[in-house]
Amino acid sequence: MANSLEVDVSSKHFNVNGGVLRVLDHISFQLASGEFVVLLGPSGCGKTTLIRMVLGLDTQYEGEIRIGHKKVLGTGLDRAIVFQEPRLIPWKSVRKNIEFALPKHDPQHSSHVDDLINFIGLQGFEDAWPNQLSGGMAQRVALARALVNLPDLLLLDEPFGALDSLTKIAMQAELLRIFEREGTTTLMITHDIDEAIFLADRIIVLSARPASIRTEIRIPFAHPRDRTSQDFQRVRSELMRIFHA
Amino acid sequence: MKRGDIFCIRVPRARSSVIAAALMLLVLTGCKQHEQKLEEVRFGSFSVAVDYGAYLVAQQKGWFDQALSAEGAKAHYEMFQSLPPINESLATNRVDVVFEAAPPAIAGKSAGIDVKIVGVSCTVPVEIIVPTDSSVHRLQDLKGKKIAVLAGTSSHYGLLKTLAKVGLGPSDFQVIDMTPPDAKNAFETGQVDAWSVWSPWIEQEEASGKGRPIPGGDAVVYSIFAARGGFIRDHPEVMKKIVAVMQQSKAWVQAHPDEAEAIVAKQMNLPVNIIQAAWPKQNWSAQINEGMITDLQAKADFLKQSGFIRNPVNVRNGFIDNGFNQ
Amino acid sequence: MASTNKCIRVPLSPENRVAGTRKHLQIALQYAIVPLTLLLLWEAAVRFGWVPNSLIASPSQVAIRLMKMLGNLSLEKNALVSLKRLSVGFALGTATGIAAGVLVGASRIGARMLEPTILTLLPIPPIAWIPLLIILFGIGDASKIALISLGSFCTLFFSTTYGIRTADRNLVELAQVLDKDRRILVLEILLPGAIPNILSSMRVALALSWTLLICSEVIASSSGLGWLIWDARNFSRADDMIVGMIAVGILGKASDWLLDLLERRLTRWRVAYRELQNG
Questions:
Q1: Which in A69, B148, C126, C141 has the greatest CB count within 10 A?
Q2: pLDDT score of B32 more than 80
Q3: In the prediction, which pLDDT does C6 show?
Q4: Best of C171, C179, C190 to disrupt the A interface by mutation (most A CBs within 10 Å)?
Q5: In the structure, what pLDDT confidence band is assigned to residue C269 with cuts at 50, 70 and 90?
Q6: What residues of chain C lie within 8 A of the CB of B7, using their CB?
Q7: B236 and B264 assigned to the same domain
Q8: SS3 for B166?
């Protein structure tokens, strides 16, 4: 299937100060097309390194990563990422920031971009500067930018980590809404347990550095999930237990 | 803040502090340096020129120091690379006797500086040189050409007068204002077609085979020496002695040309053959006379008419003091 | 009945009006007091002979001379000549400096080829180049423009390289992830990011250009504001000299103000602040 992800990494290390730092240890998992999977793990365990490898920014590792059964050899527009910081280009307007992701400037695309801007709820802000946006609004633009090329795989690296709790909750709902409309295969990193349970079809729990897979949990509940429901709390307790083990 | 205050400072206090500041300024800058005893006589000359020959010989032989030792004073010699500092030094009492040509002294007088011409070293004709392979052979050939000269000097005046005589007005050629060192560069790299300048610059170009003078023209440079009015008033006896030294030196260089050439070559750090080539052109027997006064007035009029100086100068009105030569 | 949203103008009472005017007067005086005092001291210094009038003209003499020179267009003509040399030299130097800065900052090969030479020549003060420039370019406008360009080049090269090298790594990575080629990286990320550095160093370069212009017009020139000042000094025309200096000062300030406008226009995205918290 074109939008599936297969990660089969036996080892990844960095050379630091003459020594060797192992950050990933036998990470192997798959995402089916259209799945929303969350990688949950403590800070510094290597999650971001893994994401960079999937993106194709880092190609020095033992193992293989495949998108739609094709090996990842470098960067490409079939994958898109939303970073923790919005990384909007400060001297471009909202619209131009989103258009920047497009490979070529095509007048056909302008209606698509308008569509996206309306969908993320920023109509009227097409010509605003990034400096004029709040954190949540900026991340929404980053999301739109990631989606504009209709990627096969959407990557999110702790995208709401810098936002306050109220905004975070609103953005999680936004993300869900987008996911339900687009259906893009999504891999998200977070260390926020509630966020993981709220969004994921499956949660892959990673250990501390060097990261390896501790366990996988399926979350079969329907969306939108009620954070106060018993099912939700049950999964939450289980995950907390795993983390304190 | 009370009513009537303007900038939150009590006005009376502001007024008195301004007055205090003004008084201090008056005291500091208005104080005249009243010299009871003369410690030093400061000589100055402009640029490098063979027409200072008598001055350079007197320096080397220590005749100035001898004359001044009776007063318990010393001589201090300075060379100015450009004209403005000379007048500026005269105006601010930093130099006493200057050796230059007449036009800078006239410009100073026009601006209100108290300066008087007290003697003349020599006269020397104004010369114009062209590159050796130039197509210019007569003065008329200079039409439409670029000529380097230092603005406001006798060379400048002489250039204009000489070319006017053969029918070329100021609009028929282009004058490029340059000091001798810069003009030398421009002349040798072919950026100007001709150069109106004085010895030893002329002879240097001739000796190196790079230039030759064009014949013609009877304009003359008066190499004079002038003194600050205040210096003359405060120390007339010293002035008389200095003028006497110059007369003595002029007589000596006429009597001993070979030795004089050698001394001047050494003082100017130039090969003797250059000085020897220039020597015959200097007329060391020149004195202040009616001919010089007329010529200087013509130069003063030229400077005024061309707009170089603001106020006209009457050279017969307290500008030339021949009294020390008697 | 007035609606709740309408602004109602309250007429100023006489006391309020006076208070407002006095406030304006206070502010005006605060601006004017130092220049006025200096002018008065200067006039007095010349009138009472504290400084020689042959070398320094009083404000009143300068004012008279200024009017005269404006009237017979001599000041305007010289100003235009100087401005032409300045703008050509400044534009040339700025453009080449930015181009070289981009080459060296964005390309390792460019850096290896160009940087050692440029860094060796950079510390030489532009003024020291004058004799060589005159030999190469002659005594006309070309050598003056070359001198000014040199000064601007050095300034802009330095700041452009710095601006590009300190570009936000996050944005460079973004361009990588979006598969952008080197050209787009330079034109849309590195160069615009360096613009604040470039613009502020342009103002420095402009001030330097004025200095170099005046210096170059002292040698072998027969027109321009630098020549005017030099010629006036040569013949002890104190009022002309100060008129020239004032003209340079005013034009220098005006040109800087123009650059300031440009800077503001090109960096509007920086100044805009967070206006709406929409979550």
A1: B148
A2: no
A3: 64
A4: C179
A5: confident
A6: 26, 29-30, 33
A7: yes
A8: coil
Q: Residue C134 — very low, low, confident or very high, per pLDDT cuts 50/70/90?
A: confident
- Do the Cβ atoms of A242 and A205 come closer than 8 Å? yes
* Residue pLDDT, tens place only, B221-255: 999 999 999 999 999 999 999 999 999 999 999 99
Domain containing residue B153: CATH number: 3.40.190.10
Segment C177-190 shows an average pLDDT of: 93
Query: Hey, what amino acid is at C40?
Result: L
Residues of B in contact with C41 (CB under 8 A): 22, 25
- Confidence (pLDDT) at B16: 57
Which residue range(s) make up the domain with C30?
A: 13-45
* Residue of chain C nearest A55, judged by CA positions: C177
Long-range contacts of B200-204 (CB under 8 A, 24+ apart): B200/B48, B200/B49, B200/B50, B200/B268, B200/B270, B200/B274, B200/B275, B200/B278, B201/B48, B202/B127, B202/B129, B202/B278, B203/B274, B203/B275, B203/B277, B203/B278, B204/B270, B204/B274
Cα torsion through C45, C49, C50, C53, rounded to 10: 80
- Of B183, B199, B218, the residue at which a domain comes to its end is B218
Average pLDDT over residues B102-116: 93
Q: Which of B16-30, B32-46, B167-181 has the lowest mean pLDDT?
A: B16-30
Say if residue C81 is exposed, middle or buried (CB neighbours under 10 Å; 0-12, 13-18, 19+).
buried
What's the Rg (C-alpha) of chain B?
24
The predicted-structure confidence for C224-253, as pLDDT tens digits, reads as follows: 999 999 999 988 899 999 999 999 999 999
Neighbors of chain A by Cβ distance (3+ pairs < 8 Å): C
Tens digits of residue pLDDT in C32-67? 999 999 999 999 999 998 888 888 999 999 999 999
Q: Which CATH number fits domain A5-244: 1.20.1440.230, 3.40.190.10, 3.40.640.10, 3.40.50.300?
A: 3.40.50.300
Q: What is the phi/psi pair of residue A4, to 5°?
A: -95, 160
Domain stop point among B170, B198, B218? B218
Token pair recorded at residue A71:
């090996």
Q: Which pLDDT belongs to residue B15?
A: 58
Q: Is B30 in contact with C53 (Cβ distance < 8 A)?
A: no
Does A136 contact C177 at a Cβ distance shorter than 8 Å?
Answer: no
Which token pair is A224?
């939108």
Percent of chain B beyond pLDDT 70? 89
Of B25, B29, B112, the CB nearest to C54: B112
- Closest residue, chain C, to B21 (C-alpha): C41
Q: Is residue B200 reached through a cis peptide bond, with omega within 30 degrees of 0 on the bond before it?
A: yes
Residue C156 resides in a domain: yes
Check residue B320 and report its DSSP letter. B
Q: Which domain holds residue B182?
A: 127-218
Q: How many domains does chain B have?
A: 2
Cα of B306 vs its chain's centroid, Å: 19
On whether both C256 and C132 belong to a single domain, the answer is yes
Do the strands A62-67 and A70-71 form a parallel or antiparallel pair, or are they unpaired?
Answer: antiparallel
Q: Hey, how many other C-beta atoms are within 10 angstroms of the C-beta on C87?
A: 15
Look at residue B30 and tell me if it is in a domain: no
Q: Which parts of chain A sit beneath pLDDT 70? A: 1-2, 105, 107, 245
DSSP assigned state of A11? E
What is d(CA C159, CA C104) in angstroms, rounded to the nearest whole number?
11
> What is the average pLDDT score of chain C?
90
